[in-house]
Predict the structure.
Amino acid sequence: MTEAFIEYLAAKQTVDDRALHRPTFNAVVQALADRNAARGDEPVRILEVGFGIGTMLERLIEWNALPNSVEYVGVDINETAITTARERLAEQGFTKEGEQFRYDGVETTVALRCHEMDAFEFAAKEQSESQEKPQFDLLIGMAFLDVVDIDTAISELLPLIAGGGVGYFPITFDGETVFRPADPADSDLIEAYHAAMDQPDRPGGSNTGRQLFDRLSDAGGTLLAAGGSDWVVTPADDGYPADESEFLHYIVDTIEEAVLTESPEAKRPAESTVRAWANRRREQIEAGELVYVAHGYDHVIRMP
């Protein structure tokens, strides 16, 4: 599953590119410019939790979103993801300097450190070692808050941007999963899939995107921007863009496994129904027929 997950992270890069709500992203760029002005000669400090294979950093550079000098910290619990990120970034022009990587572009210089570590353990370590506020000017958690305990995330992560720092939480899932063509088993399967996300022993939840409007505000955050960020994957005449068929296969596999192993028994369809549904969807991917939509929200806040 680790190899499949890494392939999925790479395949979803183009899906994420389309999904990100650009006005919200632009608000992040403006906030970074403001923090850059406040920092003076010091570099802007960015922390990304759920760093994965580094695609967000690649995107920020490609989209010219970063100020002239940046210290970037990427944290992910998955060792293979961090190893892959280092390899990918080397291919993108980063050079290794001891434990740090450096990128010297025309518009920006980035000093990067990658940590294979639980995000909350990293946050606790940062808070114990630093009295500076904000420790970070920007905290990024893409597709992150819907898979972790939100109470822990708010209490452990938001203090890292206290004192004027910004939190950016794009592509936070929010309770809508759609496949086309429609299938007779869709309703029961998707209900069971969402119910699996909402199990009390599982962190995160299927409606986190909308909950963040209240939860981040209650934590003291000022909403700077928000918008819908839907994953929408559709085939063209020559098949799916980039590696998005691999992305779809991973989604179908994930739903199949979650329904069969994590959904409440009262909502779980028969195994034969789940297997048959998944096989039909895989055949539709191979035939270039499957459309997939997942609804999410992007949020940007500033902490006092």
User: Anything to note?
Assistant: The chain has a mean pLDDT of 95.
